[in-house]
Amino acid sequence: MNRRFIFFLLVWILALSLSAQPATINSGWRMRYVKSHHLMSKGAETNVVDMDLEWPDEIDFQDVEPLRAYLCQTLFDVQATTLPAAYKAFMRRQGTEVSRTFDTLPDDSKFCYSTLKLKYLGGETNRFASFRVSANIEPQPNSSQKARQVESLITYDLLSQRVLTAKELLSNNSTSFGQWVGEAYRVSFFTETDQYSALIKECCLMDSGNLLAFLLDDEGDDGTMLVAQTFPNAFAKSFFSKDAKRLLKAKITGSKPLATISPEVRALLGQYDMAPDTPATADSLKQTSQDIIRYIAGNFQLPEGVQHSNGTVTAYVGFVLDSTGYVKEPCILKSMGPAMDQELVTTLLMMPRQKPIVIDGRKKSAVVQIPFRIRFQ
């Protein structure tokens, strides 16, 4: 850590009852974090699914539906605009969750391995946000699943509300330092002693207008591979397209109006109970809240490079505490900033099993919220 800080969390975890009005939270950034592993059975076939997603619901007070629609199609091969809809449609294609040991060894040739990843990379407020999107579907010879491989970098233009890929970000003008050659973009540049060239396959904008690119490298022993490299704005702008230049130079007047959202903290991917407002449930919530507060306060680490002056930042996070006491599906409802949000989610997901919420005398999965603040000094 580069600055001492004191961690304060409100003493109560808030769980919404079915009849209660949800709390109103001012927020400009909402991200859902899903990290899951599934073993599925579909007839004689077996499907293994791993997901690691940082899913955007709101960026800089904008409902980024065009971005979500693009991600649903690219990651899940599903036409939808919400994560729950795309997730459920994708999982239906995989079959049903395996809940017991197999009676006989499954046929290796009928396996399919799916790995879906979505990572927020950075951006600039009210201008753009960039992501790395990865989908690797590997069916074995006798699987009915369709093979698919995606590895891309994208930039979401918050001004025009559309997704920009490498084709939209890089100019094909002969006066620039680059030129499209098939599906790759050849960049030429010079030093005092030599001339170099590189083939860009994917790229996205980063802070200060720098360009993160995946370069094609076919000199390795394993054949062609992607190598990540950052080009500084001073050089990269020479082959930016008109769209990219307009996005970086556009004058931002004022700020977005403060939006108020009333999050219905609901199951993100499934159906869960809401804790009713009863004395027994309140006691269960209080005990669980104290345990979670102690854990987060003792384990949260300020991310490297994050700078804060003296003062306080606040956040609001919701998650599912399942019937066995583990955290699932954390969702940032009020953000401290992407880096600190990610660290908070990591801390929550690494938390050991807690006491589950007791509803009507039984341990049940329940959606809960934690408001908290960090004070720097």
Strand segment tally? 21
What's the N-to-C terminus distance? 13 Å
Mean pLDDT: 78
Q: Give the SSE order as H and E letters.
A: EEEEEHHEEEEEHEEEEEHHEHEEHEEE
Task: List key phrases describing it.
19% helix, globular, alpha+beta, 377 residues, single chain
Question: Can you describe what's shown?
Answer:
The relative contact order is 0.18. It contains seven helices and 21 strands. With 377 residues, the chain is α+β, with helices and mostly antiparallel strands. The strands form four sheets. Strands 1, 3, 4, 5, 6, 7, 8, 9, 10, 17, 18 and 21 form a twelve-stranded mixed β-sheet that branches. A five-stranded antiparallel β-sheet has the order 11-12-13-14-15.
Topology:
Blueprint: E1 5-9, E2 25-26, E3 29-42, E4 45-59, E5 62-63, H1 65-76, H2 83-94, E6 96-97, E7 111-124, E8 128-139, E9 148-157, E10 162-164, H3 166-169, E11 178-181, E12 184-190, E13 195-205, E14 211-217, E15 225-231, H4 233-236, H5 242-249, E16 260-261, H6 279-299, E17 311-321, E18 327-334, H7 338-349, E19 357-359, E20 362-364, E21 366-376
Parallel strand pairs: 4-7
Antiparallel strand pairs: 1-21, 2-16, 3-4, 3-6, 3-18, 4-5, 7-8, 8-9, 9-10, 11-12, 12-13, 13-14, 14-15, 17-18, 17-21, 19-20
Helix pairs in contact: 1-2
